[in-house]
Amino acid sequence: MSRYGDMNLAIFDGLDPGGVLWQPRLEYWYAVNHARGTLPTAVAGDDIRRVYDYCHASVRYFGHGLRMRYRTVEVSQREEGKSIHRTWRTPLGTLSDTLRYDEWNLSRHLVDYQVKSVDDLRILEYLRLDEEW
After folding, report:
1. What gap in Å lies between CA 92 and CA 127, rounded to an integer?
2. Residue 64: inside a domain, yes or no?
3. Which residue has better confidence, 89 or 107?
């Protein structure tokens, strides 16, 4: 295990890691530059773990550890090109938003938000209260 892995484990054990553990999120940067063939020469042939080592950094572990569902809200989505249109139907009304993927289909961002008027806040509150984690 690398020094940075040892530091990470020390933190989880409640111990002094002996320094500052740097955990940048390099995954998207790596994926885009790998796809474009524009990784720096020093790491061009390496996988993401080697890039973290090269940067003297620790992998920042993240993911979807928590699961959420709705009790009564109906959720649907449809894809259209690089866009995903999502809809939430509640007894109080409907909210919708749109996500769009980047040119490499590696990440997506909101281009149309759920709340479009003050009246939508009542529906959004219903969504949050209907969630189960």
Report:
1. 10
2. no
3. 89
Contact predicate 132/68, CB 8 Å: yes
**77 beta partners:** 86
> Six-digit token pair at 82?
């690089």
Q: Is the pLDDT of residue 91 over 80?
A: yes
pLDDT tens for residues 14-51? 999 999 988 898 988 998 899 889 999 999 989 998 99
Strand runs labelled E in the chain:
69-70, 74-80, 83-90, 93-101, 108-112, 131-132
Domain extent for 103: 69-132
**Quick count: other Cβ atoms within 10 Å of Cβ 55?**
13
Within the chain, where are the H helices?
A: 3-12, 27-36, 48-54, 120-130
pTM of the model: 0.64
Is 16 in the same domain as 45? Answer: yes
